[in-house]
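Weekly modeling sync, notes
Attendees: S.R. (lead), two postdocs, one rotation student

Agenda item 3: backlog of single-chain predictions. S.R. asked that every request posted to the team notebook include the full sequence so nobody has to chase files. The rotation student volunteered to paste the first one in as an example of the format we agreed on. Action items at the bottom.

Example entry:
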Amino acid sequence: MASARKRKKQRRRARKLGDCVRQFLTPAVWKQVQNGMARPWQASRWRIQPLVMVLVLMTFACGDSQEERFECARAVVIALLPKRRRPGKTVQGFEKALARLPMWCLRRVAAAVRRRLPEVLTYRWTTNGFVVLGCDGSRLECPRAVALEERMGQAGKQDAAPTMWLTALVHLATGVPYSWRVGKGTASERGHLCHLLSVLPAAVLVVCDAGYTGYELCAYMLKNSVDFLIRMSSTVTLYTPTMQPLETYREGIVYYWTDHARKAGLPALRLRLIRRVGEKQGKHGKEKYDVWLLTSVLSSQRLPAERAGLWYRWRWENEGFFRTYKRTLNMVKLRSRTVALLHREAEGSLLATQLLLAMVAESLPTASEGKASPRQAVREIRREFQKLTAQQRTRPLSYRLGRAVREQRSRLTPKANREWPRRKPHKPPGAPQLLTINDIKTTVKTAAREAA
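Predicted structure, as returned to the notebook:
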């Protein structure tokens, strides 16, 4: 009862944009970042807090150029921090100060927001004993600058623009991004996931698509006590204790053991394979297809097959996050023309997206099961910009963010209304190859005979 009164009291305080941001970025966070600097900050007109705040708020600002977004974000920061020294006036000075800011400062600010998510999401943080996080990746286009073409590399066709690869972990029950990692356009999304394992919470279940199959990744997650749910494809070979026809298979224990792992002396991974029948809305009605899921949760009581299929459908929240980041916030193409500024722009815009969705989750009523509507939330943030700069009177921001909820309706039409030119139609991954353990023994004997 006391915690409910405290939560209600905190929501009353979040009447302005500064109050909502301060729920996540407290003065203690800025003090830790300032004290963590190896040497005193050298920027003449820029302090760390207004510098990061301008970088974040530029993601929400309207404008066709970097100068227009900078002017809008700078005016809002001045209104939010009236007692602080005013920051620099030019976007060139802002970019010079931002290039000198260490990347760990932005990562430490993002970690502070990440630590607040379990408290903000409260009862929605865990689902049936698991913290369900979805992992997926996407590419961001970069300008055709010489420095970016030399450092970022080409990930597409010849003479394509340089790109940056983004791998993101999203809380599937709410759609709030949890953590992310960026790299070259040629970076490995599996390698990014291995780096992100160090920041995962307890009792986590990572849900991935068929792009994350691989013995090495599964073994690494098992070694770090991370449960996973990965969709299988026809490129994967699994072994069962007894002969199991694919037509009648439903679920059971399987062994994941590739030829490379066997030759290296690595053990077979004991996992569980689940077969679910999915449905999607097509042009001629509902179409059925098989979904093969491999999980490290061996107990069907902890993770029933129906729940596994439901959580894999939740993985669409990853696609929704990328749509919010690329289209709603107009980050489909980054704007910075140097490597240093490019990474800082990506980190700042991702932090802004996380703050946006987390603030909506903080403002939602306790009994609400809805999820944030990013478009409505961005509109309310921009209205707050006008209120701060023009001194307009409106309802508290926390009240308006609490009403920025998606429509809860069932889909009656396909997600893709037309077939786009030069795009291949999506083909669902096929079933994995199921062999018996006796096939392993035969393969080992054959390999030993050939070696002799």
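Discussion: group reviewed the output briefly. The two ends are 74 Å apart (CA to CA).
Action items: rotation student to repeat for the remaining queue; S.R. to check formatting next week.
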